[in-house]
Amino acid sequence: MKTGIDAISFDVANIHLPIKTLATARNIEPEKLEKGLGLIKMTLPDVHQDPVVFGANALTKLILDHNINLNEISRIYVGTESSIDSSKPISSFLISLMEQKFRENTLAECDVVDFTFACIGGVDALQNCIDFVKLNPAKKAIVVTTDFAKYDLNSTGEYTQGAGAVAMLVTSNPRIIAFDENWATSTKGVFDFFKPYRTLSKEEITKNTNNDLWFDNLEAEIEIHKDQPVFDGQYSNQCYMDRTRNAYFSFKKLKNTTETLYNSWNSIIMHLPYSFQGRRMLSEIYALDSAEKIISENIESADYQLKIKEVAKSEEYRNFVTEKLQPAELASSLIGNLYTGSIFMGLLSTLAHFYDTNKEIAGTQFGFLAYGSGSKSKVFEGTIQPEWKAALANVKLFENLEESVEIDFNIYESLHKKEQKQSVRTPKNEWTLDRIEKEIPNLIGARYYKWVD
Ligand SMILES: CC(=O)SCCNC(=O)CCNC(=O)[C@H](O)C(C)(C)COP(=O)(O)OP(=O)(O)OC[C@H]1O[C@@H](n2cnc3c(N)ncnc32)[C@H](O)[C@@H]1OP(=O)(O)O
C-alpha cells in the first residue's frame, strides 16, 4: 500500500515589498540579495492576516478544490513556529473555522494538534500522519504548515522574511507523491535560532503598550516573547550543513547503497529559508557523495572548506543546480521564508514548474532534505504518481503569485511595527482576523475570525 500526498494548496500574504526597495533603504548592494541569495520579493502579513488566517485559507482551498468530505478526515496536524497562544493550538482555531464555513460537516471526532520544532515541525507532522495512514489505510489526514517569518528591522534576517501556509491531504494510494519507507534523522541541541521568553518590568511594558486594558492587572514583571528570533545567521548555516550532511549519509546507510544518491533524484526539495540556501549548502554533500570528488582533508580544515567552495563554483555543480534544485527556488524568490512551509512550497514550486512547462515526471523520484533550527534534519524520498497533474490542476501557483500587490517602504515598516490600521488590500473570498477581545474578563486576548465573501 502506498502512502503520501494526494492534494496540496497554499495561501500567501499577497502583498510584497520588492527586495530592491529594501536593499536601497538599508544601503545593501541589490546584487548581493538578488544574485547572491536569489531574492526578488518579500511578503508579509496585511493588517487582517495572521498565521491562523493563512492556515484557514489554505485549508479551505484544499477542501473546496478537492471536494473533501470533512467527515472523512481523522486528523488535522499543524506545523508552526508562529503560535499565537501558549496553550490553544492553531489547529483548535482551524477546527472551529472549518465548522463555521462547512456547516453540513462535522470535525467533532477529528484529532488535532500543533507540532513545533522551528522550520521542521511541518515535516514532523507529515511523517506522523503518514505513519497513521499506513496503519489505517482507509483513513485520511491533513497537514497544515503556517508561519510568519518575521525578523528584526535592520537585522541580517530582514531580507529573508515571508508569510503564508501550505495544506496537504495525506492518504493511501495518493495522486501526487508516495513516500518510501526510509526516513533518516540527525539531531543536536544547539542555539542557532530560537525565540526565548524575556522578562520585562511593568514599567517597560506599559511604556510600550499605550496602557492597553489587557495589562490592567499586571504583576511587577512578566514573561513575554517576541515574534522575531534571536539568531546567529552564519552559525545557523553551519548547523544546517552539519545536520543535513549527517542525515543524508544516514539515509544512504538505511538504503544500504554506495551509489551517489542524489543522481537517483529527479528533483531535490530542501528547506529554503531564502531561495539560494539549498544550492549554497548542498555543494558539500555533492562533493562528498561522488567517487571522483572524494575530499580527503579533515572536515574542519581550511583546505576542505576551500575545496567545497571550488566545487560550488564549478560549471558541473551549476548545471546540477539548474536541473535539480532551481524549480524549487522559483516560488521562494517571490515569497520569502515560510518557515515550516518552505520545504513544501519548494515541492509545490517544482510540481507547478513542471506542470506549466508540460513536463511529465510521473515515476521519477524526489529527494527531501529538511532542516529545523535547534536543530534537526530529516532526509526522505518519494515517487511522483501517475495522477499528479490532475491533482495539481487548480493550484495555479505562479498565476496567483503574480497577483500580489506591491507596497512601499513606509507601509512595510508600519506593518512590521504593527502601526498600520487599514488593510492594504481589500479581502475577498478569504478568512480575516476580525478582532481581539479586550473587555470581557474571561475572554481577554481571544481572537475572532470571519470569512469575507
Ligand atoms: C532559519 C533557518 O532556516 S536556519 C538556516 C539559515 N539561516 C537563516 O535564515 C537566518 C536568517 N538569515 C541570515 O542571518 C542571513 O540572511 C544569512 C546568514 C542567511 C545570509 O547572511 P549574509 O551575511 O547576508 O550573506 P552571506 O555573506 O552569507 O552570503 C551572501 C552571498 O551573496 C554573494 N554576494 C555578495 N555580494 C554580491 C554581489 N554584489 N553580487 C553577487 N553576489 C554577491 C556572496 O558571495 C554570498 O554568496 P556565496 O557564499 O554563495 O558566494
What is the element layout, followed by pairings?
Elements: E1 3-12, E2 15-18, H1 19-26, H2 30-36, E3 41-43, H3 51-65, E4 73-79, H4 90-101, E5 111-115, H5 121-135, E6 140-149, E7 162-172, E8 177-187, E9 193-194, E10 197-201, H6 202-208, E11 221-225, E12 230-231, H7 233-255, E13 267-270, H8 277-288, H9 302-313, H10 315-324, H11 326-335, H12 342-356, E14 365-372, E15 376-384, H13 388-392, H14 397-402, E16 405-406, H15 409-416, E17 430-436, E18 447-452
Parallel strand pairs: 2-16, 4-5, 4-6, 13-14
Antiparallel strand pairs: 1-7, 1-8, 2-3, 6-7, 8-15, 9-12, 10-11, 14-15, 17-18
Keywords: Transferase
Pfam families: HMG_CoA_synt_C, HMG_CoA_synt_N
GO molecular function: hydroxymethylglutaryl-CoA synthase activity
